[in-house]
Structure prediction request, 314 residues.
Amino acid sequence: MSKLANVWVFSDIHDRYPELLAAAQTLGQTVNALIIGNEDDAAKLIKQGADRVYLLGTPSEETLIENYAEPLMAQLKQVENPSLLLMSATKRSKALAARLSVKLQAGLINDAAEICLNNGQVQAKHRVYGGLAFSEARMTSGLAIVTLVAGAFDALPADENRSGSITNVSFVMPESPLVFVERKPKQGSNVDLSKARRVVGIGRGLTAEADLKMVEELADLLDAELGCSRPIAEGEHWMERERYIGVSGVMLKSDIYLALGISGQIQHMVGANAARTIVAINKDKNAPIFQYADYGLVGDIYKAIPALITQLKG
Prediction:
């Protein structure tokens, strides 16, 4: 596969850079990274795969990512025929991507799960119809902007011997900037299920919030992170939004996913189906989850979970 001459990456969340840089290395000859941070942050990106890093200044509590359209545009315009900008599929990065798309007359694909080159053009697979299906789109614009969901690419190990250039870029405030008004703390978790190697997921088969304790115990014994289906996170509010696996939640790339009391509706499986091995326990033998599972057990999770805990404790 021939590569693009230059690929650019930007993320409002620094933890997403390793995946974006891995994708950029796959698609481009020269990898250019734009980052809001300090010199150490920029140097880290070089070790993770960037050839050139453009430092857009140090963030503050009042930094609004959407206001960085102008400095990003300035760098892209300095390159003859820029072809691809990869961004993280966060709410703020997607808002910035939309602004850049209009200002640069660039094609935009959001929430891409896969990306490749087809006859020199960018082609991406992304979710449509609320996650009920995937669509493949090929970009015909001169510049393509693609936001990648977490877990779309595996991060490459850092190379301490890599070298590259770091350039400081002046921030230019737009004529009509967004203005910081107020910050309210968000209640949530720092868990990142997209990076977990083992995940235990719980669904509506759990009938009481107090019963989460036995599921948490099982997850601890398996050295696994705990996730859930949408009703548990957004309906019952028993678990944090960050633990929701599904179309508008997390996409797993774990080695194993143990689904407990989860029916397996398509909205959930869009986020779970990339797990290498799926093990399902559900008392309904006709549950859709068994169509996706590598191993399945028809049974009551209230009997299966205690039995697994006993077995693991030996």
